[in-house]
Amino acid sequence: MSDNRYVRIEASGTIATVTIDRETKLNALNPSVMAEIDGAFAGLRDDDGVRAVILTGAGDKAFVAGADIGVLARMGTLSGTEVSRAGQEVLRRIEEFPKPVIAAVGGYALGGGCELALACHLRVASERARFGLPEVGLGIIPGYGGTVRLARLVGLGRAVEMILTGDMIGAERAAEIGLANMVVPHGDLMDRARALAGRIARNAPIAVKMALASVYGAEEGTMDHALAFEASLFGLLASTDDMKEGMAAFLEKRRADFRGS
Known about the structure:
The chain is α/β, with parallel strands linked by helices. The protein has helices spanning 31-45, 69-72, 77-95, 112-119, 146-154, 156-165, 171-177, 189-201, 205-218, 223-237, 241-251, and strands spanning 7-12, 15-20, 52-57, 62-64, 101-105, 108-110, 122-126, 130-132, 169-170, 182-184. It has a 6-stranded mixed β-sheet with strand order 1-2-3-5-7-10, with helices on both faces. A 4-stranded mixed β-sheet has the order 4-6-8-9.
């Protein structure tokens, strides 16, 4: 991780912060940036000391202002498909990350940047945040999962409007439609994201992991399949030390000390 050029990883207690640091290019994504993001999350996945991750962009202007258009402009049919699939795979691994990932969006989250935020489990937006999928204006469509995730998050009609117009929306509108979980003063963005991560990290880590698996798994199957999967996870949790500790702490009127076992 120390060899990264574009991605910084910092840890404070049980919370890790991954910062995309390409500020002069508004943190635009290119293959090297995507590879470093992927590597950062791969390392954090197996770090038992980390219980939540915040993903953000360097500077005050952008979370990620999109993909590097200079790279995209050279695409052909085959390479375009490869670019899309490679990006989808990185974002899918973030979506399937077993610990909560919070996007802290302090500026532009456009194109691939918006898609990256959509792949995170939660989105905290500063009042300066702007979200948009402007790809149709470039003769393409969102290719990192945006056409799929946006509709699932905000509903079909709102997603179609955003994708077909390519218009940006502000932070308050993003919160109104469910794209952002909360809007906070710009100067408080990271503190509020860390506070949210901290509230989650205090809970039983195995239960948080399985809750994420159940919620996201329910989107891909029938109701009966989703309920059966939920019940199986519920049963597995009943065998954990964390469940015993959580129940005992409640009955004894004290704060639980979860160990992730």
